[in-house]
């Protein structure tokens, strides 16, 4: 920096020498013209480099003006008193012009810096809005701050969780203690320590955090602006976290309500049949043994059906709140399908099922319990939305690539194209049938989760009068972990 200033001073003095040579030897102008030429050079120097360079150039220009252009020429003596006034006026004008020009340059530089600071604050506020709140917000926030302002290191301390988030190299032992102290005391004035600027962050009058910055020279107003933006970002992150907790609680309550409604609806049929069988037996104790056996068989089958419904309801609740863990075992998918159809005999009486299976399926590894639940959900969905007495088609294929597909097709009204991507969302139900057909809006989302846990895919294709759900599974030949 000192060397650069020395070069500027030499160039400024040399510029005065050049003007003197041109005005005295090359062109031979009068004193007035030479004075204006000197002033012009001095203003250019002041505008470009500052007051020191222009002041030294003014002094040299005054001496040169006296020596070469004021009589007696060639000496520093001034014979005419009026020339004293002219020379003094020239020097004062040069110095004042230099000072004003330097001030204008400094103000322009300050304006540029303020604009740059505003642009950085705006860029930081935009970057803050784009932070992914699913990850550590404080860590991402301090990294964005360092990136936008070009910081060497920065540390953010959150008072609520007591966490430190840093970027760059921050190895000052006392730094963490200072951040804790400022976050607890609510100090707003910046504190300088070991090349760090430490500032408190408050939400209103409540201190919430503190941060330390190193590597960028920022005015105090900019530091406070950054602190306010960080406070807004932390408050936004907390608000989103609270909203997620509220939504989770709402969905949990909705899950509880929908499961109760679904269980109440599903349990009515087997309970009614069990009640009818036991009432008949109690009312007619002397009925023939064969009739008694039939009634007990009905009660036993419906009790088993009821147990399966309870298991499914519990399983759906568990799957909706936890990560799905599969326990695969070698089994045949067509046998699993037959088990599901046997448990849904009362439903299949109203909707006959046609099975198309061109070739026998080899045993493969899958979780029988979960796959039964997934197939049952698709079949129940197909029967629920199909016209009475219409048939349900199940088609099973094994492709050459070792891919197994199971398609379940119904002949209901179909699913609108704009809803085909929404039906796998939790609790989503089409507005057109929401109040007409009972349901929880969980079946398809859970079925999709089960299929994906088996590294498979669940898709839907639909048009008016026909809807097909397709399960695609890799035909694994051994158990997976």
Could you walk me through the main structural features you see in this protein, from its secondary elements to its overall organization?
- It is a single chain.
- The longest helix has 64 residues.
- The strands form three sheets. The protein has a five-stranded antiparallel sheet, with helices on both faces.
- Helix content is 58%, strand content 15%.
- β11 and β12 form a beta hairpin.
- The protein has four domains: 119 residues, no CATH class; 109 residues, Beta-Lactamase, CATH 3.30.450.40; 76 residues, Orthogonal Bundle (Helix Hairpins); 146 residues, 2-Layer Sandwich (Heat Shock Protein 90).
- α1 runs parallel beside α3, α2 runs antiparallel to α3 and α3 runs antiparallel to α4.
- With 481 residues, the chain is of the alpha+beta class.
- The model has no long low-confidence stretch (mean pLDDT 79).
- It is built from twelve helices and twelve strands.
Question: What is the secondary structure topology, with strand pairs?
Answer:
Layout: H1 2-26, H2 31-48, H3 51-69, H4 81-129, H5 137-149, E1 153-158, E2 163-168, H6 175-185, E3 191-193, E4 196-203, E5 206-214, H7 220-283, H8 289-321, E6 329-331, H9 333-343, H10 345-350, E7 353-356, E8 364-366, H11 368-384, E9 392-398, E10 403-410, H12 443-453, E11 457-463, E12 466-474
Parallel strand pairs: 7-9
Antiparallel strand pairs: 1-2, 1-5, 3-4, 4-5, 6-8, 9-10, 10-12, 11-12
Helix pairs in contact: 1-2, 1-3, 2-3, 2-4, 3-4, 4-5, 4-7, 5-7, 7-8, 9-11, 11-12
